[in-house]
Amino acid sequence: MSLNTISIKQAREGLSKKKFSSEELVNACLFEIKKGKSLNAFITVCEKEALEKARLSDKKIKEEVDLPLLGIPISLKDIYLTKGIKTTAGSRILEDYIPQYSATVVKNLEDAGAIIVGKTNCDAWAHGSSGENSDYGHTKNPWNEEYVPGGSSSGSAVSVAANMALSSTGTDTGGSIRLPASFCNVVGLKPTYGRVSRYGIVAMASSLDSIGHFTKNVDDSALMLSITAGKDPNDATTPDNKVDAYENYLNKGVKNIKIGIPKEYFLEGLDKRIKEKIKNSIKLLETQGANIEYISLPHTQYAVACYYIIQPAEVSSNLARYDRIRYGNDRSFFGDEAKRRIMLGTYVLSSGYYDAYYKKAMRVRTLVKKDFDNAFKKVDVIITPVSPTLPWKIGEKTSDPLAMYLSDIYTVTANLAGIPGLSVPIGFIDNLPVGMQILGPHFSEGKLFQAGKACEYA
Amino acid sequence: MKINVKHVAKLANLPLSENEEKKFEKQLNEVLSYVKKLNEKDVKNIKETSQITELENVTREDNSSFSLTQEEALSSSKKNHNGMFKIPKIF
Amino acid sequence: MKPVIGLETHIELKTKSKMFCPCSADYFGKKPNTHTCPVCLGLPGALPVPNKTAIEWCVMLGMALNCDIPQFSKFDRKNYFYPDLPKGYQISQYAEPFCLKGSIKLDSGKTIGITRVHMEEDTGKLIHESIDGQDVTLIDFNRSGVPLVEIVTQPDFDNTKDVIDYLKKLQQIARYLDISNADMEKGDMRLEPNISLQKKGKTGLPNYKVEVKNINSFRFVEKSINYEIDRQTKILNEGKTPTQETRGWDENKQKTVTQRIKEESSDYRYFPEPDIPPVRWTELQITNYKLQIPELPDKKLHRFIKQYQLNDYDAEILTRETILADYFEETVTLGKKYGLTPKQIVNFIINRRVDPKNILPAKLIRRVISAGKTDEINDETLRKIIKKVLKENPKIAEDYKKGKTSVIQFAIGQAMYIIKKKIDTEFLKKLIIEELK
Lengths: 458, 91, 437
What we know:
heterotrimer; A: about 450 residues; alpha/beta; Amidase signature (AS) enzymes; eleven-stranded mixed β-sheet; about 35% helix; B: about 90 residues; mainly alpha; Histone, subunit A; 3 helices; 2 strands
């Protein structure tokens, strides 16, 4: 087994036991990146810097320095600002942008000893569900290169699935971590809104953006969150809530955990084979002691419409700063999808339309959130599919923006309600990966790991 | 209500060609027809959610600290002069 | 036709740091773009965190203007494109501002309604230049993000005298609260009047209004408003309605000119600022802010008149700035021991143009006492005498210019010879030096 196929936990153990060096580990990842170039998972590869850091890490390991991610190669979605390293947001507008500062999360990961091997490809401005909206070419699904890897954190998911990094950071505004995680057979976490700082990450929709990551297993996901979570004085939307000791949840099992199954997520639109797979996973959880309860989230049918009013509105405002004056190219460099969302957002906020669209959507949002508040009074977690379909072929949905938007049907609700969601792999259909989503109330990531771990053996 | 793409593009400071205007008009109207779905729901007495955190009163103390250097501030701009960003004259 | 004028005033707060970031707010005269950070420069990924002191000062200003302070308020985004606005939106307050429905009483007896007082952030500065034959605009973002308080009045004004009185009172209140220098010439108080005319007898508001920008000094307030009133009168007399627009005051041409009409400029697409949680006050906090407000100018003025038996004129001068008012009161308290009356003290302070920074109250007492033992000669007479002395002795001026300050004593001697009375020689010396300059 090559070095780069191991998990973070295994790597930390191997490094501290001197079984291999960080330099060897980083080299294995860099080699994989070169080998898998056709997947187009990376926009920038930081070969020189990563190896330098690896050598430094090896020195520190010798000196018995103990940091949670010391010597571990990770990749970052290219919307995370990295000081001195080109950051493009997947767009031609920022094709030459070298940030003057780093995101808080990047600093936290580097302080924990992580080594950045590169910046991953993504749908431009995080606008997309397939990875096909990048101005730097689309990313391919490593399980079958004719299929999409999911988006918008396409390169991030692929870099972990293809063992180019041991973990990758992403963002989830409407499903952009959970969907690619499910399409690429990796674990993807969307934390509670505000659990992880957004400072220094290109804003998509400010009230919906959630900062999360991809890992090979649930244990690693918990480890990453313990480093990225916490209040940031630079982000006024990060609450004071104490960061849980997530490792404590990993081996609790699911005895007596109440799992809610919402009927609205299992209607005719869902591929029957996916439904079957999820049912089996749930049965397995039941044999491990979990209790199932059928619930209703009645406003689910309005979620996509609600999301595609609020999100573009905030997008249109957040992208107004790209005027070429202080950085970047002029606004004609925006791709089609960005232009669509900017105009949609401008329209729903404009005079005469604000009440009918934006104001109304803000009220429907309250109803979507209430659905979850009520459900979580009865159950501990909720399990749903991540996608109504298997990964689709590259190019299949690109001419129909609305069809693309509807693929977010099971994921946008969590962003509207601000709740956390964990996508775990549950198998393959037609040799394409299928994931399952576990949702919980605000700040219940520990419970998600607890249930997710049980599913790993499902 | 059909979208006036020309007007919206102008408001959004997006230069569009005639072809783009036509293409986007069709696509945007489709999306707008879909999101109109919200009209099925009566939300008359429902409060708006603009903050999902339920946080309030988050401020910082009035202390000044480090700024970027002039060089850093200008580092990503293509045109500047005497420490200032430069653009064609606006009226 | 009656003028109908509403005022929109911006006051720049003198906080240490900016409104949404910790950059220093002391930008005046600094090298360009040296007081910026990702937040106020609008870099990708930056987020705003509001300045606690700025918010408190805004509330206090609102209270000083008798506003209601709603329990709940929040920030909104005002979206528009302009090169001095780095994010492409300004964080301001629209639907739920910090202060509402206040009022202020003017000297003319009129009460002006204050619609709202809210917080927002300042923009960068634009400089138009010609470089190598090309016309360009240069941008400095040091001022971007500095806290601004906006005060909007009802359209209750109908003459420029009241407008100027209002501005002076607003400036004085801001200085009393020590939240801003409110100096129009330095740009920390800016005025944008909305002007229209109503036909006599008609009720309600006129069906148009013209906003005037770029009035950068107190002396142009009256000129610009009067010019605009005349301009509108002419148009209305022709039976037409003035265009609803924004005009700029042109200092050089001494007239208002049409600014390029930005048709869509007024659709700001306001929506709640998602990056900043709202503000909710407790009763205790509101009470505390009220307690922090010092005695305000008009209250102090009336108290001085009553307590110290001063006339309007003297009391007004003393209460113009808190420094002088406090100095006066301290001096009066000390002076009681020596049997000095407030009247004696105020006369001395005003006639001798005493600067509180130059002389401590205790020392001032001594001078007042010694002045009481001397004769009073009025300024005019003294100056005539001094002029005579200097004319008859041109060498005094010559020697003084050469730096021979001892010649002053000679001048004093010469003057005293003519005066033949015992007077305050310090004051005489001061006047002589003034004349020599």
